[in-house]
Amino acid sequence: MTQAATTTEPRTTAAKLSLPTLTTMVVGSMVGAGVFSLPRRFAQETGVAGALIAWAVAGTGMLMLAFVFQTLAVRRPDLDAGVYAYAKAGFGEYLGFFAAFGYWASACVGNVTYWVLIMSTIGTIAPALGEGDTVLAVVLSSVGLWLFFLLISRGVKEAAAINRIVTVAKVVPILVFVVLALFYLKPHVFAENFGGADYAGSLFQQVKGTMLATVFVFLGVEGASVYSRHARRREDVGRATVLGFLSVFAVFASVTIVSYGLMPMGEIAELRQPSMAGVLEHAVGTWGQVFVSVGLIVSVLGAYLAWTLMAAEVLFVAAKDDDMPRFLKKSTAADVPVPALVMTTLLSQVVLVVTYFSDDAFNFALDLTSSLTLIPFLLAAGFAVRIALAETRGGRGELAVAVLATIYTAFLIYAAGFKYLLVSLIIYAPATFLFVKARREQGRALFSAPELVILAVSIAGAVVGIIALTLGWISL
To answer: What are the residues whose beta carbons fall under 8 Å from the beta carbon of 429, sequence distance 6 or more?
Structure first.
């Protein structure tokens, strides 16, 4: 890419996204690695009763967040890039910067889970790949990272078209899995799994233990708001958000619940990822594992494409608003923010290498992805509360939705636990260098008094996290 091919503003001729396209992108963002890993993750934490409660809580909470993004898209049509823009408008530039960086970082970490799961899937026939955590797996995943960089750099229009095709293709094996699982379901096995195994703990502990997994599979519900600058009509952003969420919620819950009717939860908990393949293999034989594995690879590659696009878009828009260094606001004639795309790929590369040293590469990346997203979500929900209190048009309904979304997101931070809060701060704190660079480029004071307090808290949390990792109080 030559310097002459870049510009600091998107071209007016860039393709605009319709409601079906926006909805497909939301669905494509949510239907990824997470759904194929759900049976094992849930079986490690809870039985049927806990799973039903967890999905009820997660479904209600995420629906409230979907309504929040729908409302904000209408109330504040001047704000682009969704989560980041809402946090900045509601709570100032520094917290807005944190929301942009956290959301972007979560997308990069989430992309790593896709490559780990692909390598683990292929590892069933190529043992050298292990469960996606061997040196060979990291090397091959790295090649995939940069091949997708080349694909996406061709343009948003081409990438979006591929994503539409992939989204349809990847939903088919998931639906087939649910239908076959219902056909082979054993009522007595389902009943034995209802209360959970001895290792699962109390019902509250079971529900709490599944929260990060549910957050992970619903990441992408905000996807349409991230692409608001590309939408043909502003109202399509909110509609696509809600339609996308409702399209996948029942599928996600069904994948988990029907699995309890095929195998004892203790056996599901020991399956290698993707556990959905192991469950179907138990029911119908080897062809079931192959069928799900092929579907997973298609699904994961499509989700990776969508998330990489969203991650780069967040950095690009934050730079346009002068909250990131100005080099990130450059884009090509095809409206692709290449510098932001490079940073996205680089961070994914770094995290991919880190997972090699973790005890459980997939679960570590999954939980960290969810944790990094919670602060941006909490700030967006809090902004919706402020808007509802100031506006009279929405009435009490909008306020109730915003308050419920805020409470739900705060509960998720509690459910994530101290470990992932500290690890998240280790990632958040160094990002302030980008904020400082942006301020210096503009000749502005680096921090206000309230921003210094936030900076001190983030640095203190990062230091505690590093000490905890060093002394073995927490581990990756």
So the answer is: 458, 459, 461, 462
Q: What is the largest CA-CA distance in the chain?
A: 69
**Two structure tokens written together for 32:** 């990824």
**SS3 of residue 6 by DSSP:** strand
pTM confidence score: 0.76
Q: What is the pLDDT of residues 56-85, one digit of tens each?
A: 888 888 888 878 877 787 777 777 656 777
Consecutive H or E run containing 282: helix 275-284
Task: Look at strands 331-332 and 6-7 and give their pairing.
Answer: antiparallel
How far is residue 23 CA from its own chain's centroid?
Answer: 16
Dist CA 148 CA 209 (whole Å): 33
Q: What is the dihedral of CA 236, 242, 244, 250, to 10 degrees?
A: -160
Mean pLDDT of the chain: 78
Rounded-to-integer distance, Cα 361 and Cα 447, Å: 37
**How far apart (Å, rounded) are the C-alpha atoms in residues 476 and 69?**
33
Contacts of 152 (CB under 8 A, 6+ apart): 159, 305, 308, 309, 312, 336, 341
Query: What are the CB-based long-range contacts (under 8 Å, 24+) for 56-60?
Result: 57/207, 57/211, 57/408, 58/210, 58/211, 58/214, 58/215, 58/218, 59/249, 59/253, 60/404, 60/408
Per-residue pLDDT, averaged over 210-224, amounts to: 70
CA pair distance 105, 213, nearest whole angstrom: 18
Instruction: Report residue 229's pLDDT band, with 50, 70 and 90 as the boundaries.
Output: low
Alpha-carbon distance 209 to 203, whole Å?
A: 10
Q: What is the sign of the dihedral through the CA atoms of 186, 191, 197 and 202?
A: positive
Burial per residue of 297-328, b for 16 or more beta-carbon CB atoms within 10 angstroms, e otherwise: bbbbbbbbbbbbbbbbbbbbbbbbbebbbeeb
CA distance 251 to 245: 10
Work out the burial of residue 12: count CB atoms within 10 Å of its CB; fewer than 13 is exposed, 13-18 middle, 19 or more buried.
exposed
| 356/17 Cα distance (integer angstroms) | 38
* CA–CA dist 321, 85 (Å, integer): 9
Tell me if 270 sits within 8 A of 55, measured CB to CB. no
Q: Do 39 and 256 touch, CB atoms closer than 8 A?
A: yes
The partner residues of 17 in beta bridges, in order of sequence, read 231
User: What are the residues whose beta carbons fall under 8 Å from the beta carbon of 33, sequence distance 6 or more?
Assistant: 113, 114, 117, 274, 296, 299, 300, 303, 366
In the numeric block, the tokens 């209600």 are attached to: 60
- Kindly report the length of the chain: 476
Residue 251: count other Cβ atoms within 10 Å of its Cβ. Answer: 18
Torsion angles phi and psi, residue 197, rounded to 5: -80, 170
